[in-house]
Amino acid sequence: MINIQLERLWYRLFQYNQSKYADYIIKNGFSSKYLRMELKILALYYRDKGMPPKKRKAILYEMCNKYIEGFNRVNFFKLINSVVTYSSNKKNKLIDIDHILVTSTSLNYIDNLDVDYLCKKLLFGFIVFDKLGKVKWTIENEKESNNEHFFANNPSSYRNLTKSLSINKSVLRKYGYQKIYEVTHYLINKGLLEDTINNTKLLFLYNIPIDENISIEVKNYDNVGLYYDLHSGTKNVKKCENCSVPIKVKSNSAKYCEECKVKTILTKTAERVKKYRDVTK
Ligand SMILES: [Zn+2]
User: Fold this and answer.
1) How far does residue 204's CA lie from ligand 1's centre (Å)?
2) Ligand 1 centroid distance, CA of 272 (Å)
3) From CA 210, how far away is CA 261, in angstroms rounded?
4) Rounded distance from Cα 185 to ligand 1 centre (Å)
């Protein structure tokens, strides 16, 4: 159980919350599935803390030795060298995006559209991922992004989007669609989106005036749809009692999001281990 939760948490943090991800690796070890990427994040993390290359290399070896069973320096020589070189390139950045803000003007705009709930949720998702992409681009390129709004029109970006919005086959069917492209096609006919060669142009975003009134602060990019559900008063969606992230609950007794649940379990385990050690001292 804890492994599944950790796995999900891992996946969630590695794209946009990399410092937090590094902290988790340092405390709990590698998830092994993404070792190269995890080493890269660690190397960038230590670089940003001001650690010179030699020391970074030493600490990476130390971490591998600690967390990888049967670790052998010779086998990892190439990998660790390439990761340290990667982290010495200033162009490579650690990505930390704590939250994305959604203004009340844009929420009102979506709420008042004459389209079904699924369309509204999809448009909400476009807003969040458009901003997320822009913030990431700004971190990577150290300058402001342009004011255009495009969403990459390829299967993997749509898969990530619909996953984060919990739009699956049965949800699509419930609203009378077979595929997500039917939903976007409908929105194209409504003049809210436009198909270009490689992108979906988010036309509707050009209609929304910029304002400073913040309505929603999105922190969990893996479950962006839940923020819109919570805003719309959907049944069985509530806030985590610890960190306020929206969660879907099966029973009323559920209180915490995955991250807070994992944290609680880890703390309890640590306490138990500590107690056990104290007794046998
Ligand atoms: Zn929480």
Assistant:
1) 32
2) 22
3) 37
4) 36
Give residues with Cβ within 8 angstroms of 88, minimum separation 6: 47, 53
Distance CA 277, CA 38 (A): 31
Per-residue pLDDT of 215-255, as tens digits, reads 999 999 989 999 999 999 999 999 999 999 999 998 878 89
pTM for the model: 0.86
**Ligand 1 centroid distance, CA of 245 (Å):** 6
Q: How far apart are the first and last CA of the chain?
A: 31
Cα 258 to middle of ligand 1, angstroms: 7
Q: Ligand 1 center to residue 259 CA distance, Å?
A: 6
Q: What is the CA(171)–ligand 1 centre distance, in A? A: 26
Each residue's pLDDT tens digit, 15-63:
899 998 999 889 888 877 789 999 999 999 999 999 999 999 999 999 9
